[in-house]
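Troubleshooting log. The previous run stalled partway through. Resubmitting the same two chains, unchanged.
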Amino acid sequence: MDLTFTRSPLDHAGLFRGDPDWIDGLMADPSARVLALSGGAPLPGPDGAPLALTVPEAQARALPPGLVFLGLEDGAPWFAATVEGEALDFRRAAMTAPPGLAAIMGRARSMLMWHGRRRFCSNCGAENTVRDGGARLVCPSCGMEHFPRTDPSVIMLAHHGDRAVLGRQPGWPEGMYATLAGFMEPGETIEEACAREVFEETGLRVTAARYVASQPWPFPSSLMIGLIAEVADGAPVARDDLEDARWFTRAETRVLYEDVMARWAPPHFSVSRLLIETWLKM
Amino acid sequence: MDLTFTRSPLDHAGLFRGDPDWIDGLMADPSARVLALSGGAPLPGPDGAPLALTVPEAQARALPPGLVFLGLEDGAPWFAATVEGEALDFRRAAMTAPPGLAAIMGRARSMLMWHGRRRFCSNCGAENTVRDGGARLVCPSCGMEHFPRTDPSVIMLAHHGDRAVLGRQPGWPEGMYATLAGFMEPGETIEEACAREVFEETGLRVTAARYVASQPWPFPSSLMIGLIAEVADGAPVARDDLEDARWFTRAETRVLYEDVMARWAPPHFSVSRLLIETWLKM
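Second attempt completed without errors. Output:
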């Protein structure tokens, strides 16, 4: 099964969304739907599924910045808007939604959470103006353009032969350990960021790293870049945001994967599981 | 030869830079050097190479946000600061600097250009406060944290069998064509962004894509993610930011690579060249 938030059915229509008349035409399209979110999570519809409003309904309820264009699904426009109301739990909603809708919800969440914190121009402090159906902000005072953030992060199954090093953050369910991960920083390649993160979190040195897959991760706007990394042997020392880091044999990793992790989220929910699965088969 | 801006010798010291006393200690270190930039490009030193100041010299000349910590090179601290003055051409300086210094200049440029446009909080418009030696901004009014941007972009050698499709932007030197490229958007995997960009720029459909390598690209803060993509056959139609897109045979691509591109930049300057080189050997 494909990873959650991937294989979005949306055509972002990057060549057309800059034309306000084109966006207006989409808003008049009777097939247009507006995903209603509060705090980045969908509101429940009458059936408990994520609430999709018509454009007039959404225009009556939308808070700033109004309707944000997400893309076209088989020609039918999708927008998103922040409205008042009690939202569903985003993770649970994404786990249970049909895959295409989960991907649309992920894009909606990243876009609206970005807008939610970008009312003002970071260059001069003036209030931004929305352009391109919400895919761009422009400052009317200094002219600076602002584009949505996508924060690349590395996530890796780090192993030495038949043992993997996994980490645990404070507050996690009993027995839960996961692959190491962290945000990339300016001036790094993907493989260099992988080596830095493994060292920061465990003190172990990466000797090789191989890209496996990526996943958009809307918490709020990460791109998870998954790798399998070989590390030099040693005793891991939990640092940074970890409370523990330790070696797991293949058998222990399999138990973790099939038991503890399975209670946490479905196997296709994050690239972390795919990395573990890939390593177990290596 | 390694790609320019990669293999940075810097330890970003993420576990320590949050401590202001630790940063103060580095500033008092006589081995500390401060790269002086204007508009994101280094100023020339007495020998024409990028200017490195002492901390007291830099403190006397630095414009806001002051000295930004870049990392440790074999234990010696590197900072960067924006100062007034006429800068070198950044590309030329990066092409001619020793590789380690070019990587440090790349990180310095990304960090300072980010700071240059982040004086104000995008959430509330108040003036941000610098933290973690410049690796974080905090808004004293609403409390929002701001971290440096790294903008993932896909760049791909798109081919169908023995022909590659390359594009040309307006204003480029005569005969110059290059690999297709563009920014990733929220809600995409790396491979999905690759397919979207190739379609947007040429109308061709990607059938497979394989990650090859990545490169930090400080113009101002991109992460170039390089792929080799297979596309379905067809007639490319230049769109988006391209004025032309066309098929190149292997022989034509080799001429472009060895002749036109070689006059443009050294072969290791961008991942684009590495992708072409990789495909020519496939």
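Takeaways: Helices of chain B lie at 20-27, 55-61, 90-96, 99-116, 190-202, 250-264, 271-280. The mean pLDDT of chain B is 97.
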